[in-house]
Amino acid sequence: MLSRILFYSIDKAIKRYRQFAQANIDRAGFAITIDQWLVLNVIQEKPDSTQIEIAERTFKDQASIARIINLLIQRALIAIEKHPFDRRRSRMIVTAEGKRTLEDMMPTIKDNRAVALRGITEEEIAQLQYLLEKIFNNCTNQICHEEQLPNQSTILLPMDTGLDNAIGKPVESAEPARTIYNGESQ
Fold it and tell me: What is the pLDDT of residues 140-168, one digit of tens each?
């Protein structure tokens, strides 16, 4: 039964949130998608980001990012300018219209989050975030381990994140990293 599979429940919740959030963004009169909003935010935070970096930060493929960037340029939400220090490169900047869009959307974004998190305590949110990060790190560490070159036999993995009780409270000291030799913990 799908409802008993954790990853199905996570995916179901994310998809429903995105549908709900996009409907509210549309209803508020913003002609922008959640993915476009994410890319716009990444460019605002770090204008020197490459398309590859934006793809990595938003968990989108590079082709999708290229399409989104083109749409944002067409809508005059971002512009391309020469890089100030490297004339071979260009960089993306958020235009005044893009900044206004980000600012105007914030109340809708905050309302969407508040509705989605209604009835969930701060402690539960911290615990959920901690557990999701743990799943992410488990999968990231596995990918790194599988991509290891044949002549490399050592990889360091953290044994503990330094957070107590799965709720995000820092502990005095985290356990030291352990070393893995050819798949065996030392």
Answer: 887 766 655 444 443 343 434 343 433 34
| Closest alpha carbon to 128 in 162, 78, 166 | 166
- For 153, the domain range is 122-185
Contact by Cβ (8 Å): 94, 75: no
Q: Could you give the number of structural domains in the chain? A: 2
Do 132 and 96 share a structural domain?
Answer: no
Q: 96 with 37, same domain? A: yes
Which residues, at least 6 apart from 73, have a Cβ–Cβ distance to it below 8 Å? 79, 80
Q: How far apart are CA 21 and CA 14, in angstroms?
A: 10
Is residue 68 located within the same domain as residue 159? no
**Residue 154: φ, ψ to 5°:** -125, 135
* Residues 76 and 109 grouped into a single domain: yes
Residues in the chain: 186
Report helix, strand or coil for 85.
coil
Q: What's residue 47's pLDDT?
A: 84
Q: Are residues 13 and 97 in the same domain?
A: yes
Q: Which two tokens stand for residue 72?
A: 């944002």
pLDDT in tens, 88-116: 778 899 999 999 999 999 999 999 999 99
User: Residue-wise over 13-50: b if at least 16 C-beta within 10 A, else e?
Assistant: eeeebeeebbeebeeeebebeebbbbbbbbbbeeeebe
